[in-house]
Amino acid sequence: MTEATMTSEEATRATAVQAKAAGKTLLKVSGLKVGYGGIQAVKGVDFEVREGELVSLIGSNGAGKTTTMKAITGTLPSGAGNIEFLGRSIKGRGAWDLVGEGLVMVPEGRGVFTRMTITENLQIGAYIRSDKAGIASDMERVFVTFPRLRERKDQLAGTMSGGEQQMLAMGRALMARPKVLLLDEPTMGLSPIMCDKIFEVVQTVAAQGVTILLVEQNANRALQLADRGYVMESGLITMDGDAKELLRDPRVRAAYLGE
Ligand SMILES: Nc1ncnc2c1ncn2[C@@H]1O[C@H](COP(=O)(O)OP(=O)(O)OP(=O)(O)O)[C@@H](O)[C@H]1O
Ligand SMILES: [Mg+2]
Fold first, then answer.
1. d(Cα 107, Cα 119) in Å, to the nearest integer?
2. What separation in Å is there between the alpha carbon of 215 and the centre of ligand 1?
3. Ligand 1, closest atom to CA 39?
4. pLDDT band for position 231 (50/70/90)?
5. Full-prediction pTM beyond 0.85?
């Protein structure tokens, strides 16, 4: 689309996307390869996430999205390539260590502590911090973002619904004050109404200034929310660009939007 054919709203958004894309790089992945035994799941990917951006990574089942996220966050050893966070190599660093630096992932399947209460789960999110007042105010902010969690704060996490557990997992990640938040399929297995709620919350959290890398099966919603996007296929990044441009791309529409 040329600038002349954009509405003013689209032009404002495009300007904001360009400004963020020119900002400070927080996460930079180059030539990353990750394998499981003899199987190469990620075959040399390059991408970056800049301060304040919401970047969506889309791709079909088995494309290597989760593997990429796990390698970045140190839950899986990476092979060739580099991973830089805040300008320094983090290759080989452990997940717990990286959470302390602000690289925080909400994994596929959520991983909440089922036998602990909502409040206890949120407190664990802040385990790396010692600023009691800051922790208390962040917990209050999480409760404002997710009123359901406040209502259920003394309930055991394992008795919450799937969508509530997703909210808890996101709330717990926010308690670590992430500089980059990685979300792996936050809407997986949820009802349409709960998916709407989760996407709304992702948008709220992004608007609060948290930089987000979002992996989603729902390419349409993910690209609608994002500033920029990457498409991953069979372990490689095959397309990237302004999320709205990707949404209009006939190849993306054919492969991921069922057209
Ligand atoms: N623990 C494992 N051992 C062996 N192979 C694995 C393992 N985990 C993932 N793989 C393989 O690596 C490839 C990439 O998987 P990955 O989970 O990263 O895909 P994905 O893009 O996240 O898919 P989905 O959208 O289904 O979550 C797949 O072929 C998968 O079978
Ligand atoms: Mg996955």
1. 19
2. 13
3. 5
4. very high
5. yes
Residue 65 Cα: closest atom of ligand 1: 21
The beta-carbon contacts of 45-50 under 8 Å, at least 24 apart in sequence, are: 45/81, 45/232, 45/235, 45/236, 45/237, 46/237, 47/230, 47/237, 47/240, 49/25, 49/180, 49/211, 49/213, 50/20, 50/21, 50/22, 50/23, 50/24, 50/25, 50/26, 50/211
Structural domains for the chain = 51-73+94-256 (3.40.50.300)
Which of the ligands is closest to the CA of residue 58?
A: 1
Q: Give, using CA atoms, the residue closest to atom 31 of ligand 1.
A: 62
102: DSSP letter: T
Is the pLDDT at 1 greater than 60? The verdict is no
**What residue ranges in 65-107 does DSSP mark as E strands?**
82-85, 88-89, 103-106
Q: Where does ligand 1 bind, in terms of residues with CB under 6 Å? A: 36, 39, 41, 59, 61-67, 217
